[in-house]
Amino acid sequence: MRVRFWGTRGSMPVSLTWRDLRDRLAQVVVQAHGKPLDTLEKACAFVERELDFSLSHTYGGHSACVELLPPGEAPDQYVVCDMGSGARPFGAHVLARQAGRGATIHVFMSHMHWDHIMGFPFFGPAYAAGNRILIYGCHEALEHAFRRQQDPPSFPVPFSQLAASIEFVPLAPGKTHQIAGLRVTPARQFHSGDSYGFRFESGGKHLVYTTDSEHKLQDNEETRRIVAFFREADLVVFDAMFSLAEAISVKADWGHSSNVVGVELCQMARARKLALFHHEPANDDRAIERILRESRRLEELTRDAHRLEVVAAYDGLEIDL
Ligand SMILES: [Zn+2]
Ligand SMILES: [Zn+2]
Fold first, then answer.
1. Is 0.85 surpassed by the pTM of this model?
2. Phi and psi based region of residue 88 (left: phi greater than 0; alpha: psi -120 to 50; beta: remaining)
3. What is the pLDDT of residues 161-170, one digit of tens each?
4. Handedness of CA 17, 18, 22, 23 (dihedral sign)
5. Which residues lie at CB < 5 A from ion ligand 2?
6. Could you tell me if residue 240 is inside a domain?
7. Within a domain: residue 299?
8. Quick one: which ligand is closest to 281's CA?
9. At 66, which helix (H) or strand (E)?
10. What's the 95 CA to ligand 2 centre distance in angstroms?
11. Running DSSP on this structure, what letter comes out for residue 279?
12. Which domain holds residue 236?
């Protein structure tokens, strides 16, 4: 199974500012000084190999949208979690790849906060007849939330005018469903208005997508439930929006978790890889890189025989399980 990230930012999309770009270019010019970079190939190799990630890349601006590619991919079929602003480039990818052929797109919704549905009005496949979009979720108001965001005066095209066939499919939390060749189990999470994590299994590989969830380690029974949900997952995509200090003080009960809690839960669950996700919009690339370094250091210091690999998700990242 492959996981492809189209949107990794929390709450609100962001982009680099002109100041970010200017400062970054200036630093690169200094680092490149005296090096024989007289061709584009040499310059690309220098950028790839010698620059810090936060100079050569960006953790990306789009809000939550994560594609799953199960093994033995079914043609004309797509699976995705959440419809944040990353759904716009994901939709463009689907249309380009399909080249006019109809597609079936399975969408799993963690919840309907705006950052998780805002990409849908810009999701190209919804405008093309011949496409079938199935939107799965555990909230009663799922369909209402999608329709309402396109009602006047908020958007020029009402939901009822979308040309694709769009169905809303309720899922029962705690039950395992067979969808698009995947075994899918939703679990309720602590978040304003509730959110749901999803555990996906295909070909013996397990992915847990758990965003917009405040995991409180003080509650033993709750911790046991979450650890069981994460158990031996090959990848856990985890809401690490806050620092631990924020998560247990000023921003307690705001419905998000920290990188520290992510490392601890994944260690307890013997998960293989943790992807920090739903990055705080106020954090620039250096701040996210620092959080990643701290998370890896924490993992090293607290490691027993089991090793957990930690990465920070960015728009465009692909992980093979
Ligand atoms: Zn969110
Ligand atoms: Zn939320």
1. yes
2. alpha
3. 999 999 999 9
4. negative
5. 113, 212
6. yes
7. yes
8. 1
9. strand 65-69
10. 28
11. B
12. 2-14+58-313
